[in-house]
């Protein structure tokens, strides 16, 4: 954690290592612990701008794998041949757009963050809305036994959301990365062993 006037060490490290955002270290922590990303996989990355997770996934799945990023905003990095981007609002994107991937995705990642207002309950509600839509898409496109990583902001709807996931995955775990900013209320839900439609 950086002190006022001090440079955030994760941001500095991201720049040196060629990632456009510090958030890559949250995914790396998740990967070290849960080993979800593997060569040859097909991954969807929801809320992928500026592209740190895209780059890390692209490197890890390798040339036999594929990564599709979706965001309102374009990535700021050049995309490798195994990486694709769809500019869209996740809330209104029709199911048909992703249907060709139905049942074929190994892992769905979501680092989606709403525009924050500073009002805790409102930001939680916006994050919940994004996650509810993300979960609808997950149920549509994820392979049986597939996995998800979903970022959510703390709040009273989180318990019910967790219940929704619990019924559809063999195991759901909560993870708070050390590289999350201390003031942030975000945490990640890791679902493994998707039970299918
Ligand atoms: C924290 S950033 C993601 C950072 C990314 N994981 C990385 O490492 O580069 C969150 C992203 O969620 C996106 N987002 C928020 N609401 C969205 C929506 N309704 N549809 C698509 N993307 C959305 C934002 O545009 C933003 O780029």
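Q: What amino acid sequence fits the structure above?
A:
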């Amino acid at each position: 954690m950086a002190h006022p006037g001090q440079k955030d060490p994760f941001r500095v490290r991201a720049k040196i290592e060629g990632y456009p955002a510090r958030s890559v270290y949250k995914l790396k922590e998740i990967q070290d612990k849960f080993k979800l990303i593997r060569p040859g996989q097909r991954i969807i990355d929801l809320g992928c701008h500026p592209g740190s997770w895209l780059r890390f996934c692209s490197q890890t799945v390798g040339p036999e794998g594929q990564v599709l990023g979706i965001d309102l905003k374009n990535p700021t990095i050049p995309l490798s041949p195994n990486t694709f981007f769809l500019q869209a609002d996740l809330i209104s994107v029709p199911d048909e757009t992703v249907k060709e991937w139905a049942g074929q995705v190994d892992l769905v990642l979501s680092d989606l963050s709403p525009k924050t207002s500073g009002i805790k309950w409102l930001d939680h509600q916006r994050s919940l809305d994004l996650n509810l839509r993300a979960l609808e898409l997950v149920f549509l496109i994820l392979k049986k036994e597939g996995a998800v990583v979903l970022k959510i902001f703390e709040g009273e709807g989180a318990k019910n959301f967790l219940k929704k996931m619990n019924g559809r995955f063999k195991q759901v775990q909560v993870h708070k990365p050390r590289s999350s900013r201390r003031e942030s209320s975000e945490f990640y839900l890791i679902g493994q062993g998707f039970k299918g439609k």
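Q: And what stands out in the fold?
A: Residues 9-194 form a domain with the Rossmann fold fold (CATH 3.40.50.150).
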